[in-house]
Design a protein that fits this description.
The structure is a single chain. The protein is mainly beta and about 260 residues long. It has one helix at about 5-20, and strands at about 30-35, 45, 55-65, 70-90, 100-105, 115-125, 130-140, 145-155, 160-170, 175-180, 185-190, 195, 220-230, 235-250. Strands 1, 2, 3, 4, 5, 6, 7, 8, 9, 10, 11, 12, 13 and 14 form a 14-stranded antiparallel β-sheet that branches.
């Protein structure tokens, strides 16, 4: 064997040994479940998009030019205690857990009646009536303001919203909001502008309802938008703007300032 052939054979043997001993990737993939920037939708009233439909009553969804001057955003409008939601159906997140991120701006929050309750995100499943509300809040007359809170309804823990005065809801300001639904402990974690708000976290035994365990349904639907539950609120109408929605099996990020 010539010198050149010996060198080539040695290189091939070394390469084969390296390939044999190099471990293959074993990390579990985390596929993106959903994305929507509204940039590819026509301007004007809308009832559906790619992968989503709508649920409205005394409310509407409209695609408008972005307030930043780039792209488009979704304008959610309701009258009174109406509702207007973008609805993601047929969800099947791995491990019944997922992350969500969205940018939003609420023009005005309620100032009446006392304890007016509002929801921006609601996750549910067909196996149980339990509604999980990872984004919402309440007007607290005792503290003269609206405050973020995680909540639930129609399940064994009852109807509750665990709002905190350390998480004030500010009107007229864009925020990047994230939440994580973790089925290992039925845990809801909320992040505002990239910062975790641990006081808003709820879990199986720590929540705002009865002494019963808080347990997730088998998630297959997520609604994003606005609903106020009390009649004759002040103000009499509500406007919310949403953009850059993403759902994934891992944290999407992009909220840090």
């Amino acid at each position: 064997m010539t010198r050149k052939r010996k060198i080539a054979s040695a290189l091939l043997a070394a390469s084969a040994a390296l390939l044999a001993t190099t471990p293959t990737a074993s990390a579990t993939p985390h596929p993106t479940l959903f994305r929507e920037s509204f940039d590819r939708l026509p301007l004007g009233p809308v009832t559906e998009g790619r992968g989503w439909t709508s649920d409205t009553s005394n409310g509407s969804l409209t695609v408008e030019p972005s307030a930043t001057g780039h792209g488009r955003e979704l304008h959610v409008h309701t009258e009174g205690n109406g509702r207007a939601f973008l609805v993601l159906s047929d969800l099947a997140p791995e491990g019944n857990s997922f992350w969500a991120r969205l940018r939003l701006r609420v023009d005005r929050f309620p100032t009446a009646p006392d304890w007016a309750h509002w929801t921006i995100a609601e996750a549910s499943g067909s196996d149980t009536p339990t509604l999980v509300r990872p984004l919402g809040g309440q007007y607290a007359p005792t503290d003269q303001g609206n405050f973020w809170g995680v909540g639930s309804d129609l399940g064994p823990t009852g109807d509750w919203t665990s709002w905190k005065t350390s998480a004030p809801a500010t009107a007229g300001t864009w925020q990047c909001v994230e939440f994580h639904l973790d089925a290992t402990d039925n845990r809801v974690t909320v992040y505002l502008d990239g910062v975790e708000k641990p006081e808003l976290t709820v879990s199986t035994r720590q929540h705002g309802g009865t002494a019963d365990d808080f347990v997730f349904p088998r998630f297959d639907k997520l609604k994003l938008g606005w609903q106020l539950y009390q009649a004759d609120p002040t103000p009499s109408s509500y406007d919310l703007h949403m953009d850059d929605i993403a759902l994934s099996g891992k944290r999407v990020g992009g909220c840090a300032r």
